[in-house]
Design goal:
Largest sheet: 9 strands, mixed
CATH superfamily of the largest domain: Zn peptidases
Helix content: 25-40%
CATH architecture of the largest domain: 3-Layer(aba) Sandwich
Distance between the termini: 26 Å
Shape: elongated
Structural class: alpha/beta
Number of strands: 20
Strand content: 15-25%
């Protein structure tokens, strides 16, 4: 499956950006400052045009602002794109990603096919040039993503991108950064492709096929368990969710073994509901089309394994993806039914639209039975989390603060925002059932917390983090490196975590 992010023909070269021949070159400014270093050389060649635009307010200096200047033959390139990185003291790699995305999209609209970006390696403080190159590539590929499987793209692709440094000795490390940025961004775009696919195409069976394609490419071990095998394993909760659909469920595992001498294996678990109608507790029709994206957690886990296979960290990782449709029919799970999870706990189904916690109950039980530790699950689980945090943050819950802190660090490095919410013991009263061990939804406020408490029943003492990405998995507008539609949230955090937990990366 080819990701919607295009091949930009990325090359790393040494030179002066002002002397590069291209359709467009990209330089930067910090807010409240005059052109410095690399940008100053371009400004001089333009006869001070950039400084004049700053002086007369043509460049206002706000983060993410992109200004286009036509060179009129004063430079070998036709266009200069001046992108503002915000205040110097607030400079981060994520701002580089966002600025790269904005700038590349603006140049694509101008029919630029070859662009060159200056790394500004003389005035970026303590930022490692290799990390900077990685961020530029990530932001460019993510910002130019376009899902056009069913219609003609609006704009032609950028076909060649030059990353321009000034020191030839640094080119090998810059190339390493470019490679890593390319791998991680393409994995994120793969997840976006899967999520954006309509549900009549991205079925549980198709997810299994994509997993096999990822495994073949990355030399991963893949297992796809069918409904009979799922039943044999005692996953009654998982099967119950799929029982109303003609699409048969699949339990997918992808395994990466980067450290043969270690018995420790990280577990990533991703919710894979390829369409969520709500089942018998059917959802309102408004925006129900977006429920094709209820497999965003599963797509992110699969895509993360594809990147990990290429980056080859010295660690072991298993991805577990329970995938099914949640549909209403005469055979569908009903409110009031009781199902038993793989670990033996019984669950009263109060609401069939709370299906994610049912399939994750069995997937988490399976992860624990396989001895995976730590375990991180990613799911578009509760509207309550979106009500609490909006579209900017995914919710995070954990039974192990040390692990939670590691996940926070990985998310910060990836530029994905998390906010920790508590696992309050007193809220467990809400999930007690009179006829089963627990029920699948609480009855009061704090729905994101009660959902996480339900999941915690299936991990025991295994170090675990639950990420609820219900409102961060989709974007309603273009902004930075985000485009309309699926965001691929979680892919980069999971990859960063796997790399951080490894002893070393080869």
């Amino acid at each position: 499956m080819k990701a919607g992010g295009k091949d930009l023909g990325i090359k790393v070269i040494a030179g002066e950006i002002a002397q590069i021949e291209a359709d467009a070159i990209v330089v930067k400014l910090f807010e409240g400052e005059q052109p410095g270093d690399v940008t100053a050389a371009v400004d001089k060649a333009l006869g001070g045009a950039i400084a004049r635009l700053i002086g007369n307010g043509g460049i206002k200096g706000k983060f993410g602002e992109v200004s286009i200047i036509h060179t009129l033959g004063k430079l070998p390139s036709d266009i200069v794109s001046v992108v503002v990185l915000g205040k110097r003291q607030d400079f981060t790699l994520d701002k580089v990603r966002k600025a790269a995305g904005e700038s590349c999209r603006s140049l694509r609209k101008l029919n630029c096919h070859k662009i060159a970006t200056a790394l500004h390696d003389a005035d970026i403080g303590d930022i490692d040039p290799e990390a900077l190159a990685e961020a530029v590539v990530e932001g460019s590929l993510l910002g130019l993503y376009n899902f056009a499987n069913y219609k003609k793209p609006e704009y032609e692709d950028i076909k060649e991108t030059l990353i321009v440094g000034r020191d030839k000795d640094k080119l090998p490390s810059l190339e390493q950064g470019v490679r890593r940025g390319n791998v991680i961004a393409e994995a994120t775009n793969l997840a976006r492709d899967m999520i954006n696919e309509p549900a009549n195409h991205m079925t549980p069976s198709r997810m299994a096929e994509v997993a096999k394609e990822i495994a073949a490419k990355g030399k991963l071990e893949v297992n796809v368990f069918d409904s009979n095998e799922i039943k044999t394993m005692g996953m009654e909760a998982f099967l119950g969710v799929s029982s109303g659909s003609e699409q048969l469920p699949k339990l997918i595992t992808l395994s990466y073994k980067g450290d043969e001498n270690s018995k420790n294996t990280i577990g990533f678990v991703g919710k894979g509901i390829t369409f969520d109608s709500g089942g018998i507790s059917i959802k309102p029709s408004k925006d129900m089309d977006e429920m094709k994206g209820d497999m965003a957690g599963g797509a992110a886990v699969m895509a993360a394994l594809s990147a990990i296979a290429q980056l080859k960290p010295k660690t072991n990782v298993v991805g577990i993806i329970p995938t099914a449709e949640n549909m209403p029919s005469g055979s569908a799970l009903k409110p009031g039914d009781v199902v038993k999870a793989m670990n033996g706990k019984t669950i009263e189904v109060k609401d069939t639209d709370c299906e994610g916690r049912l399939i994750l109950a069995d997937a988490l039980s399976y992860a624990v039975k396989q001895g995976l530790s730590p375990v991180i699950d990613l799911a578009t689980l509760t509207d309550s989390c979106g009500v609490a945090l909006g579209t900017g943050y995914s919710g995070a819950f954990s039974n192990n603060q040390e692990l939670m802190n590691r996940v926070f660090k990985a998310a910060d490095g990836a530029g994905e925002k998390l906010w920790q919410l508590p696992l309050l013991e007193e809220y467990k009263e809400q999930i007690k059932s009179e006829i089963a061990d627990i029920k699948n939804t609480g009855e009061g406020y704090g729905g994101a917390i009660t959902a996480a408490l339900i999941l915690s029943e299936f991990v025991g003492n295994t170090p675990w983090v639950h990420l609820d990405a219900v409102y961060t998995s989709l974007s309603s507008k273009e902004s930075g490196y985000l485009v309309k539609g699926a965001t691929g949230v979680g892919v980069r955090t999971l990859v960063e975590l796997a790399l951080a937990l490894a002893n070393k990366v080869s």
